[in-house]
Amino acid sequence: MNWDRIEGNWKQFKGKVLEKWGDLTNDDLDVINGKREQLIGKLQERYGLARDRAEREVDEWSAGLKEW
């Protein structure tokens, strides 16, 4: 899915993000505000992921949102 669309509809996607990455908080989601780079950074911080792994997870997650 296009990140412009995710960013524009972030409130709708927050629940999907929490389903996938439950260690993120609502405050984290407010800071991320639909921005891909912010999400990648928070995943690195919370889960101790390398940048390339966090990017891969975000890309796989967003690809699975096609039904939206």
Automatic annotation (TrEMBL):
<protein>
    <submittedName>
        <fullName>CsbD-like protein</fullName>
    </submittedName>
</protein>
<dbReference type="InterPro" id="IPR026042">
    <property type="entry name" value="YjbJ"/>
</dbReference>
<dbReference type="Pfam" id="PF05532">
    <property type="entry name" value="CsbD"/>
</dbReference>
<dbReference type="InterPro" id="IPR050423">
    <property type="entry name" value="UPF0337_stress_rsp"/>
</dbReference>
<comment type="similarity">
    <text>Belongs to the UPF0337 (CsbD) family.</text>
</comment>
<dbReference type="InterPro" id="IPR008462">
    <property type="entry name" value="CsbD"/>
</dbReference>
<dbReference type="InterPro" id="IPR036629">
    <property type="entry name" value="YjbJ_sf"/>
</dbReference>
<feature type="domain" description="CsbD-like">
    <location>
        <begin position="4"/>
        <end position="56"/>
    </location>
</feature>
